[in-house]
Amino acid sequence: MSLANGRPYLAIPGPSVVPDRVLAAMHRPSPNIYGDDIHDMARSIFKDLLRIAGSTAHVAIYVTNGHGTWEAAIANLFSRGDKALLAVTGHFGRGWAEWARRMGVDVETVEFGGGAAIDATRIEEVLAADRSHRIRAVMMTHVDTASTVRNDIKAVRAAIDAARHPALLAVDAIASLGCEEILFDEWGIDVLIAASQKGLMLPPGLGFVWVSDKALETSRNAGLCTPYWDWKPRVLDDQFYRYFAGTAPTHHLFGLREALTMILDEEGLASVWRRHRVLAGAIWAAFETWGRGGDIALSVADRASRAHSVTGARIGAGGAARLRQWLESTAGVTLGIGLGMAQPGEPTYDDFLRVAHMGHVNAHMTLGALAAMEAGMRALAIPHGSGALDAAAAALVAEA
Question: Quick one: what percent of the chain has pLDDT higher than 90?
């Protein structure tokens, strides 16, 4: 018998849950794109996008997904043959590196595996050895959505400065913006990329790029830049259509306006960050307890290196895949696959899963998902430690 009828819970790391208020804001006739109302709304959105990233510089909106923002950053920073240094802590770091290589950039990667954060001393060593300053930018993920490793942006910026290197710092914050603390100006970030479908609680379709003055100046000589990806007209022009290189993504803008109001003006950004941290701690407590009685472990051992927006875990002997299937068909809960932790066909491919807790998520959603997971483990006879739900509740209460 299935108990999945009713409202489903999509606990995957994007698209995240879209609030009813955001859906309602988007559900309207097409607006007059030449009218003052939408122009004024767009200006308020750009202002609030700077607020959410802690930036006083520039921000561009693209009609795209996260991969498009990868390309926007590459196109505006590099010419063919330029060199980049990319710190890799999982599948999406490798993906950004491959994207840049395909566009003609000479990419040197520093691998840290799929379960550990960036060691900034290694970045400093590579930069110190680059005496001719061929490396134009250091690229990193803040949270790798696949490995669920969270990296220290400030430490990487300090490593660049300690090496006395002029490289720009470009950060993929697709899985962290709106979930984790990010301070663009204070942390010395030059390029920050994000997308609409995660912490910003929208459907996929919008990509965002924050740009420092230094990065803006660099883009003037970027040979890879093409008319659509060029961020200069998007951040410097005062004509509405230039912000989007054509027709505006009107209904996404209506939804974004509502989402930013919810985050910045109602809950408050610091409270949003804290909510994500508290809910993440409850999930970690449950998995750590389950692991005491079974082949279950979090993907990231170091608590300080775990994302607050998504948690990766391993359940041995294919238990992760069996649990995911049971949850979706029987309980109405969808978890994320273990992307990049093992390749299809490898013996451990079915051992990994991810639980997203990003965006429009609260305590009962998180505790309900954990309870459903425990029910699934019992139904499937997956060995696990007892008391996980008590541990999750205790962790939540202690923090909240």
Answer: 95
